Each structure stands twice: as C-alpha cells, then as structure tokens.
Amino acid sequence: MIRNDPKRGEIWLINFDPTEGDEIQKRRPAVVLSSDAVGILNLKIVVPLTAWKLEREKYLWLVTLNPSTENGLDKKSSADLLQVRSVSVRRFIRKLGFIRAAQLEEMLQALAIVLEWA
C-alpha cells in the first residue's frame, strides 16, 4: 500500500536518483503538476526545483519561486519545466508545502512553451 497521496500544486521532497545523463539528480523539492482526477497508477507528473541563478532568468521554461511559509522552501528556486517527468509516489519523501494557483498557471504556460503548444 502506498502511503503518500501528493496533490496538484503541492511541493514534495522527492528522491530522483538513480538518473541518467542530464536528468536532474538527488533529493530535491518538486511541484506536483498532474491532475488529482486522472490516473490509476501510483504515478505523479512533477516538475523538479533547482537553485535559482540570475543568469537563468532569460530562460522561458524556468519559473522562479521565492521561499515562503506556504511553500516550505528555504531558498529561492526555479521550477525547470524542461525536466518534467512522471515518477512513482514511492519516490516522494515528505510534503513541504504548496504553490498558489497563479504560480501553477505560470508553470503550465512554461510547459506549453517547452512543448510548443499553441
């Protein structure tokens, strides 16, 4: 039985290892993007967070998140929509917090850019 039940818009600490090549590695926060109403497998679509860097501000597929008590982040971070992936809920370690609806919308728009959607 799977004990984790991540919901859309939540931030969780996730173990991404093992990885290959340029895939984002190690334990790190990620935002759940997948719908709570879709899927029968114990999988969630997530976007990993990485350290924010000024030189990456120009990249349209990165969305900046500032730390807050709501999201549980301890440093300024970037959601890297080029690294979106489906992962087993067994990789989820603990819930850190959640993002606001406007931030989720910004991430979905960045994902549309990555996918050349519309």
Can you describe this structure?
- By secondary structure, the protein is mainly beta.
- The protein has one domain: Roll (SH3 type barrels).
- The protein is 12% helix and 34% strand.
- It is built from one helix and seven strands, in the order βββββββα.
- The N and C termini lie far apart (40 Å).
Which descriptors would you attach to this protein?
single chain; 118 residues; mainly beta; SH3 type barrels; seven-stranded antiparallel sheet; 7 strands
Q: What is CATH's topology name?
A: SH3 type barrels
Alpha carbon gyration radius = 13 Å
Helical proportion, percent range: 10-25%
Helix-strand makeup class: mainly beta
Q: Give me the count of strands.
A: 7
SSE string: EEEEEEEH
* Count of alpha and pi helical runs: 1
CATH class: Mainly Beta
Largest sheet: 7 strands, antiparallel
**CATH architecture annotation:** Roll
Q: How are the SSEs placed, and which strands pair?
A:
Layout: E1 10-15, E2 27-32, E3 43-51, E4 62-65, E5 77-80, E6 85-88, E7 92-98, H1 101-114
Antiparallel strand pairs: 1-2, 1-7, 2-3, 3-5, 3-6, 4-5
Quick structural summary:
With 118 residues, this protein is mainly beta.
